[in-house]
Amino acid sequence: MTAATTFRALLYAAILVATAAGAYMLGRSTPETAGTPTQTPPVAAESTELKLDPSYLQVVGITTEEVKAGDLRLDVLAPATVTAAPKGAGVVTAHAAGTIVQIAKQLGDSVREGETLAVVESRDAATMAADRKVAETKAALARQALDREQMLYQQRVTPRQDLERAQAELAVAEAELQRTRETAAAAHLTDNGRMAIVSPLTGKVTAIAAALGKFVQPDSELFRIADPRFVQIEAAVIAVDAGRIAAGDSAKIILGSGKLISATVRSVTPTLDEQTRAATVVLAPNPGRETLSPGDVVQADITPRAVAPSGVVIPEDAVQNVGGRNVVFVRTPTGFAVRPVVIGQRGAGRASVLSGLKSGETIATTNAFFLKAELNKGTGGDE
After folding, report:
1. From CA 311, how far away is CA 314, in angstroms rounded?
2. 112 pLDDT band (50/70/90 cuts)?
3. CA distances, 20 to each of 12, 16, 17, 26, 29 (Å)
4. What are the distances in angstroms from CA 56 to CA 60, 148, 257, 361, 371?
5. What CA–CA distance (Å, rounded) separates 268 from 283?
6. Residues facing 120 on adjacent strands
7. Which of 3-12, 35-44, 217-226, 301-310 has the lowest mean pLDDT?
8. In this predicted model, what pLDDT tens digit does every residue of 59-80 receive, in sequence order?
9. CB-based contacts of 363: which residues, under 8 Å, 6+ apart?
10. CA 118, CA 115: separation in Å to the nearest integer?
11. Residue 74 · residue 307 · CB < 8 Å
């Protein structure tokens, strides 16, 4: 090999090394192109906030709820039924034997206290009407006799004994009249000698056993009335859990729609049902806008005070998955802040939050997924 050939080989090698080094340095200094795919970073929940007009919440039906302390590992979940409270239910019977000649209300109708439900034609009612009429006549005659004796006594025509006798006879006649009037009023006697069956309270007709032409006895049940303002919830709780519950414990009533109604434990039965071997826990719903109807089947979530909860319990609908993380939307003065949470046990439409949320904060519950959609709009991300 000549010296010239060796020189050219070394020159070519040097050029190749320089070219490779230049390409490497150029690659280090060139930024990523716009078309290079990048991964969307997870939501920084502490700093992400949705600013929304309050009218938007009404339009899409987003509701909020204050977070309460709880733990599904400690809470007692039990099936429950809505029943009428003692002061919110009434059984209507006839006050005398007779035949139903008129029915004024049907099943499901609203009634007012004292409103007529039916009319009964009765021999007893006719007797009551006749007794009242006789008593009214006797009282009127006794009153006239007393007036005459007073006039004669003032004229010194009759002795004082006659005046006193007339006064006593009037007192007896008025007492008899009072008795017949009270009897007629208790039987709801009408002017034509019939008997009206009236409602003892304001509410709705929940059961009816009356029929035109039906002969009824004084103790025959004809109607049942329930006032929806006075209801209670009866939950069937197994004996082990019933021992942890006491009057005054807080609870949540979970409706079929997923809505929640706060309630308080009123009492716990000391004995178990012979068939189900469960105790009955009576819950009183706290005043609110939601109404319950007797017969509704619900779920009760009872939080015993005997054991302090380690976290909070929220509706499962409030938990959304954003960027692969469980988050909730916490209410702020201008909208909602995205807050990551750690979820524990779930059940009956509820979820235990182990960390990330404090009792007393307000979160979006029903239709919270609309806020997730708004968040995705703002970041351009997909689930």
Report:
1. 10
2. very high
3. 13, 6, 5, 10, 15
4. 6, 84, 22, 21, 10
5. 9
6. 100, 195
7. 35-44
8. 888 888 888 877 666 788 889 9
9. 64, 65, 67, 314, 318, 328, 329, 330, 331, 357
10. 9
11. yes
The CATH-assigned architecture of domain 89-122+201-226 is Beta Barrel (2.40)
Give the CATH fold of the 123-193 domain: Helix Hairpins (1.10.287)
Q: Which two tokens stand for residue 188?
A: 């709801």
* Partners of 262 in beta bridges: 252
What CATH number is given for 76-85+230-303 in this structure? Answer: 2.40.30.170
Q: How far apart are CA 1 and CA 18, in angstroms?
A: 25
Fold entry, domain 49-71+310-379: 2.40.420
Q: What angle do CA 291, 293, 295 make, to 5 degrees?
A: 150
d(CA 225, CA 217): 19
Domain(s) labelled CATH 2.40.50.100 in the chain stretch across 89-122+201-226
Q: Which part of the chain is CATH 2.40.30.170?
A: 76-85+230-303
- Which runs of consecutive H residues, i.e. helices, occur in 231-285? 239-242
Mean pLDDT along residues 169-176: 94
Q: Where in the chain is the domain with CATH 2.40.420.20?
A: 49-71+310-379
